[in-house]
């Protein structure tokens, strides 16, 4: 083995992102200087991206168990029991750094990577969602980023034939230098046919399938573990290139192989490629692994062991097969025109050994690579509490309807049609609620009555003002959105996007957000089953808003019971939940008064539970024609969204006595829903018996939104404003 | 009705199509992989569904048109068999020379996924008999290359011989530029072969055959086919 000279090794370790004390640990594990390949393996395995070294101490405090959880965090994706002998397998993952450097490919490979995490466990993917945060559209290059990310998500998902059914988008200058691209995939598998990644069986063949390995994405995981500087464009070669057609072939070939009994273990080659997949599979199984690089299918000539082990070429999987089954498995992959190569075997040495051209290129003990991996309990600083703002103290300069029109055209509330019109949301023929049709996407399971509801949620401005309340709110809003279509919320995946964890105030945001999320998960029986952490989302020292994006999944036993948000005429509008008129951190405050201030709305988890369980029961009893949760923009925005969804107006009652008008219409108090029902009085009686606050606030009909003082605005005009914003910004943006 | 769905490696709407066909006929269609060289015996309808047949990184459907199974599809069509091509299937039919013209990049240069409306231009074909002439129906569409193009001579022939099956229209049936999202020549959404036995269209009626998914506007395409095969 060719060892690096000590001075060169120390210098390279710094370039690869290892801290001096981490490099000392490498030396003590090996008892000698490393080879280049070994140093590469240590640096990617111990990168923030792969090791979760700053976040693990906090993440392990999150609730991860429930009777319906089959596999929680630690596998490629979370697995939950959804009935009918089926499991839902899902996860959300970030591709933030690559998407800023190269928006199309960054976003596309983000979708590809999360799809592989899900089908590697035996699931056929049935839905994609995403959570996107962009900077101000007039920031440099931001329109190109928005355009490229949307095209990339569509380009990949549309081709693999998995419908993109939901998502969320925010705009804020804090993301000018670090847009966030979080992609989520949900798949379905028989609950007794889940494939795991722990390798087993001395001598069993290690098999590589999928695309050939090239020089793309080398050190991508390391790049994702540092802040950006002004020269980030030079990092473009660390971005991978996606090939959704090959991914489609890989899905079909893997599912065909999974229908046999040939697979012992399987894992996709994601971040840190062959290195992380082989180290994690062998490490989890407590075995050793020996790989021969000469057998790795290669796209380019002259590749070194170092390059092959660190490449992040896409659309590749690693698996352990039962002995003697190689030819049968190979036939399946050749049918799908994919590479198939036996590149090694399992050993009992507890070491990973890499051979190339007759030389040993790496020989590392697996246990210390994991057990000695750095783990930091970094210093935290609490975010100072912001003052509670009273609605009555905030003067309303323009009145409710002009404010409403401004809000529905604002970046954070305008129609997302320009985006979702570029995503195939119907392929598969099972999409019951498409984007914009309901608070959560609803996708039926083919051949069954059962359906899954799915959503992604986070309100970063709340998290910035109060990370603990914001963390709880993100989980509660996901739960609420699933509830609002009639689904029983089951579990979440979390995608923790934060700044530089070495700064105490950032680590404090992280710790507080986890506290809030954990409390909400417990109170709502809504455990975390998978997740991903993206830190160092900073450019030139400026961090993003803390963004713990939540992906929620729930189940409907009968897809026909799902309700949407489109309003029909002749119905009572019932507001469920208590309204104080909370304007701190509200969109009204930001868009109308131009202030981002105050404490965000508190989250009363008991009320969330009570109100949500009540609403869901009414939906499943068939009493609710349409339902919408109250979130950004509050009551009047919710009414407008329902009205625009159905092309129907409404006449609204005056605010209750004692309420400040602006607080009533635009306050963002939590745990609230707006229901359209035939019989409002009956619903109020049911609410009274359940101890849930409820009030009839209006009645649908006509073509205008009419307030009690006689002022009105046409739904058509609202819709025009609502629809115009993104096309006006983005059309003409060349691809 | 004994139907066969041709599956290329990147086909992705074969299940949608199978659901629609089974819904009207009660029979599961045969799935025929592109490397096969013959259709199953007794097949009376061949469907080329949507997707990205071979990745479609170059011209959509160009490689698929050269697949082994396409020789059998050509023979089947030459013998007067019924062939339906939807989206990528339409692209493949034009590349294979079974229908005239070509599908170009959408005029918007963006992928378009939304509901569109189509006006039925003639109701006396095996694909359209369960509509009235001039009827308007809704259908999802999802494509990047659906902008139908042909030369003047072909267009004159299509119009002159009544070979335009469907045109993009407003929900009220008006033929407007705004309703023609992909920029198709003369608003053409779907066309027929001269013997009316081959039909290609860009939108996806197979995705709107169930009230749960938002409606049944797409059903008449399939009940028409069933009807024509039952009475044949």
From TrEMBL, chain A:
<comment type="function">
    <text>Part of the phosphoribosylformylglycinamidine synthase complex involved in the purines biosynthetic pathway. Catalyzes the ATP-dependent conversion of formylglycinamide ribonucleotide (FGAR) and glutamine to yield formylglycinamidine ribonucleotide (FGAM) and glutamate. The FGAM synthase complex is composed of three subunits. PurQ produces an ammonia molecule by converting glutamine to glutamate. PurL transfers the ammonia molecule to FGAR to form FGAM in an ATP-dependent manner.</text>
</comment>
<keyword id="KW-0963">Cytoplasm</keyword>
<feature type="domain" description="Phosphoribosylformylglycinamidine synthase linker">
    <location>
        <begin position="9"/>
        <end position="53"/>
    </location>
</feature>
<feature type="binding site">
    <location>
        <position position="52"/>
    </location>
    <ligand>
        <name>ATP</name>
    </ligand>
</feature>
<dbReference type="Pfam" id="PF02769">
    <property type="entry name" value="AIRS_C"/>
</dbReference>
<feature type="binding site">
    <location>
        <position position="532"/>
    </location>
    <ligand>
        <name>Mg(2+) 1</name>
    </ligand>
</feature>
<keyword id="KW-0479">Metal-binding</keyword>
<keyword id="KW-0436">Ligase</keyword>
<feature type="binding site">
    <location>
        <position position="268"/>
    </location>
    <ligand>
        <name>Mg(2+) 2</name>
    </ligand>
</feature>
<feature type="binding site">
    <location>
        <position position="494"/>
    </location>
    <ligand>
        <name>ATP</name>
    </ligand>
</feature>
<dbReference type="GO" id="GO:0004642">
    <property type="term" value="F:phosphoribosylformylglycinamidine synthase activity"/>
</dbReference>
<keyword id="KW-0658">Purine biosynthesis</keyword>
<feature type="binding site">
    <location>
        <position position="240"/>
    </location>
    <ligand>
        <name>substrate</name>
    </ligand>
</feature>
<feature type="binding site">
    <location>
        <position position="531"/>
    </location>
    <ligand>
        <name>ATP</name>
    </ligand>
</feature>
<feature type="binding site">
    <location>
        <position position="91"/>
    </location>
    <ligand>
        <name>ATP</name>
    </ligand>
</feature>
<feature type="active site">
    <location>
        <position position="49"/>
    </location>
</feature>
<feature type="binding site">
    <location>
        <begin position="94"/>
        <end position="97"/>
    </location>
    <ligand>
        <name>substrate</name>
    </ligand>
</feature>
<feature type="domain" description="PurM-like N-terminal">
    <location>
        <begin position="437"/>
        <end position="555"/>
    </location>
</feature>
<dbReference type="InterPro" id="IPR010074">
    <property type="entry name" value="PRibForGlyAmidine_synth_PurL"/>
</dbReference>
<dbReference type="Pfam" id="PF18072">
    <property type="entry name" value="FGAR-AT_linker"/>
</dbReference>
<comment type="subunit">
    <text>Monomer. Part of the FGAM synthase complex composed of 1 PurL, 1 PurQ and 2 PurS subunits.</text>
</comment>
<feature type="binding site">
    <location>
        <begin position="312"/>
        <end position="314"/>
    </location>
    <ligand>
        <name>substrate</name>
    </ligand>
</feature>
TrEMBL record, chain B:
<feature type="active site">
    <location>
        <position position="204"/>
    </location>
</feature>
<keyword id="KW-0547">Nucleotide-binding</keyword>
<comment type="pathway">
    <text>Purine metabolism; IMP biosynthesis via de novo pathway; 5-amino-1-(5-phospho-D-ribosyl)imidazole from N(2)-formyl-N(1)-(5-phospho-D-ribosyl)glycinamide: step 1/2.</text>
</comment>
<keyword id="KW-0436">Ligase</keyword>
<dbReference type="GO" id="GO:0004642">
    <property type="term" value="F:phosphoribosylformylglycinamidine synthase activity"/>
</dbReference>
<feature type="active site">
    <location>
        <position position="206"/>
    </location>
</feature>
<dbReference type="GO" id="GO:0004359">
    <property type="term" value="F:glutaminase activity"/>
</dbReference>
<keyword id="KW-0067">ATP-binding</keyword>
<keyword id="KW-0378">Hydrolase</keyword>
<dbReference type="Pfam" id="PF13507">
    <property type="entry name" value="GATase_5"/>
</dbReference>
<keyword id="KW-0315">Glutamine amidotransferase</keyword>
<feature type="active site" description="Nucleophile">
    <location>
        <position position="87"/>
    </location>
</feature>
<comment type="function">
    <text>Part of the phosphoribosylformylglycinamidine synthase complex involved in the purines biosynthetic pathway. Catalyzes the ATP-dependent conversion of formylglycinamide ribonucleotide (FGAR) and glutamine to yield formylglycinamidine ribonucleotide (FGAM) and glutamate. The FGAM synthase complex is composed of three subunits. PurQ produces an ammonia molecule by converting glutamine to glutamate. PurL transfers the ammonia molecule to FGAR to form FGAM in an ATP-dependent manner.</text>
</comment>
<protein>
    <recommendedName>
        <fullName>Phosphoribosylformylglycinamidine synthase subunit PurQ</fullName>
        <ecNumber>6.3.5.3</ecNumber>
        <ecNumber>3.5.1.2</ecNumber>
    </recommendedName>
</protein>
<keyword id="KW-0658">Purine biosynthesis</keyword>
<comment type="subunit">
    <text>Part of the FGAM synthase complex composed of 1 PurL, 1 PurQ and 2 PurS subunits.</text>
</comment>
<dbReference type="InterPro" id="IPR010075">
    <property type="entry name" value="PRibForGlyAmidine_synth_PurQ"/>
</dbReference>
<keyword id="KW-0963">Cytoplasm</keyword>
């Amino acid at each position: 083995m060719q060892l690096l000279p000590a001075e060169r090794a120390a210098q390279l370790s710094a370039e690869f992102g290892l801290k001096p004390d981490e490099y000392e640990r490498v030396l003590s594990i090996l008892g000698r200087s490393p080879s280049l390949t070994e140093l590469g393996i240590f640096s990617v395995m111990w990168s923030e991206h792969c090791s979760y070294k700053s976040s693990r101490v906090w993440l392990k405090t999150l609730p991860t168990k429930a009777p319906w959880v089959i596999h929680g965090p630690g596998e490629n994706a979370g697995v939950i029991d959804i009935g009918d002998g089926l499991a839902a397998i899902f996860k959300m993952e970030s591709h933030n750094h690559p998407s800023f450097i190269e928006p199309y490919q960054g976003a596309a490979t983000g979708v590809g990577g999360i799809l592989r995490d899900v089908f590697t466990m035996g699931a056929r993917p049935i839905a994609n969602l995403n959570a996107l945060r962009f900077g101000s559209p007039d920031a440099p290059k931001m329109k190109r980023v928005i355009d490229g990310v949307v095209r990339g998500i569509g380009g990949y998902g549309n081709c693999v034939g998995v419908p993109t059914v939901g998502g969320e988008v925010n705009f804020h200058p804090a993301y000018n230098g670090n847009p966030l691209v979080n992609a989520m995939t949900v798949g379905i598998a028989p609950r007794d046919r889940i494939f795991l990644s722990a390798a087993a069986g001395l001598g069993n063949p290690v098999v590589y399938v999928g695309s050939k390995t090239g020089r793309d994405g080398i050190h991508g995981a390391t790049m994702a573990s540092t802040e950006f500087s002004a020269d980030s464009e030079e990092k473009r070669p660390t971005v991978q290139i996606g090939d959704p057609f090959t991914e489609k072939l890989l899905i079909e070939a893997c599912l065909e192989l999974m229908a046999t009994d040939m697979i012992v273990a399987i894992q996709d080659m994601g971040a840190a490629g062959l290195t992380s997949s082989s180290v994690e599979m062998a490490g989890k199984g407590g075995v050793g692994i020996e790989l021969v690089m000469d057998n790795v299918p290669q796209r380019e000539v002259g590749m070194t062991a170092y390059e092959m082990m660190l490449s992040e070429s896409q659309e590749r999987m690693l698996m352990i097969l039962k002995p003697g089954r190689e030819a049968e498995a190979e036939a399946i992959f050749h049918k799908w025109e994919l590479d198939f190569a036996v590149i090694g075997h399992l050993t009992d040495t507890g070491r990973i050994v890499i051979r190339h051209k007759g030389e040993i290129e790496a020989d590392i003990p697996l246990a210390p690579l994991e057990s000695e991996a750095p783990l930091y309990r970094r210093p935290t600083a609490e975010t100072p509490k912001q003052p509670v703002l009273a609605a009555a103290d905030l003067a309303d300069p323009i009145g409710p309807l002009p404010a409403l029109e401004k809000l529905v055209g604002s970046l954070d509330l305008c129609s997302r049609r320009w985006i979702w019109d570029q995503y195939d949301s119907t392929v598969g023929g099972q999409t019951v609620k498409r984007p914009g049709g309901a608070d959560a996407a609803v996708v039926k399971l083919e051949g069954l009555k059962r359906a899954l509801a799915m959503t992604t949620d986070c309100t970063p401005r709340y998290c910035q003002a109060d990370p603990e309340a914001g963390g709880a709110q993100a989980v509660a809003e996901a739960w609420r959105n699933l509830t609002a279509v009639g689904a029983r919320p089951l579990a979440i995946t979390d995608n923790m996007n934060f700044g530089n964890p070495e700064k105490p105030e950032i680590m404090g945001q992280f710790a507080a957000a986890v506290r809030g999320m954990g409390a909400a998960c417990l109170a709502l029986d809504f455990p975390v089953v998978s997740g991903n952490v993206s830190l160092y989302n900073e450019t030139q020292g400026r961090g993003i808003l803390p963004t713990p994006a939540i992906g929620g999944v729930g189940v409907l036993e009968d897809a026909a019971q799902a309700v949407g948000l489109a309003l029909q005429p002749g119905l009572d509008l019932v507001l469920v939940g208590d309204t104080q008129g909370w304007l701190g951190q509200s969109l009204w405050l930001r868009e109308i008064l131009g202030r981002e201030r105050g404490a965000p709305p508190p989250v009363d988890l008991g009320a969330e539970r009570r109100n949500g369980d009540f609403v869901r029961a009414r939906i499943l009893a068939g009493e609710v024609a349409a339902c919408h949760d109250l979130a950004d923009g509050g009551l009047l925005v919710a009414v407008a969204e329902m009205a625009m969804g159905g092309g129907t107006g409404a006449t609204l009652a005056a605010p209750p006595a004692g309420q400040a008008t602006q607080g009533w219409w635009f306050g963002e108090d939590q745990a609230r829903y707006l229901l359209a029902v035939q019989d409002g009085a009956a619903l109020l009686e049911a609410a009274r018996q359940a101890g849930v606050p409820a009030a009839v606030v209006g009645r649908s009909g006509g073509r205008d939104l009419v307030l009690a003082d006689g002022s009105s605005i046409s739904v058509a005009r609202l819709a025009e404003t609502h629809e115009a914003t993104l096309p006006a910004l983005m059309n003409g943006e060349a691809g | 009705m004994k139907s066969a769905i041709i599956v290329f490696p990147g086909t992705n709407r074969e299940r949608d199509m199978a659901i629609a066909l089974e819904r009207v006929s009660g029979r599961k269609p045969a799935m025929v992989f592109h490397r096969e060289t013959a259709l199953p015996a007794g097949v009376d309808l061949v469907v080329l569904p949507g997707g990205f047949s071979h990745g479609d990184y170059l011209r959509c459907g160009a490689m698929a048109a050269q697949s082994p199974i396409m020789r059998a599809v050509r023979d089947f069509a030459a013998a007067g068999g019924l062939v339906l091509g939807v989206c990528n299937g339409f692209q493949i039919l034009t590349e294979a020379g079974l229908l005239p013209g070509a599908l170009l990049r959408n005029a918007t240069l963006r992928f378009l996924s939304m509901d569109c409306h189509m006006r039925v231009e003639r109701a006396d074909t095996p694909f359209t008999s369960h509509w009235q002439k001039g009827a308007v129906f809704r259908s999802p569409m999802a494509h990047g290359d659906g902008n139908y193009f042909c030369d003047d001579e072909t267009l004159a022939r299509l119009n002159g011989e009544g070979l335009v099956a469907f045109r993009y229209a407003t929900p009220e049936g008006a033929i407007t530029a705004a309703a023609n999202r992909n920029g198709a020549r003369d608003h053409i959404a779907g066309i027929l072969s001269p013997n009316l036995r081959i039909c290609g269209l860009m939108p996806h009626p197979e995705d709107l055959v169930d009230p749960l998914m938002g409606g049944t506007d797409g059903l008449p395409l399939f009940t028409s086919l069933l009807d024509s095969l039952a009475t044949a």
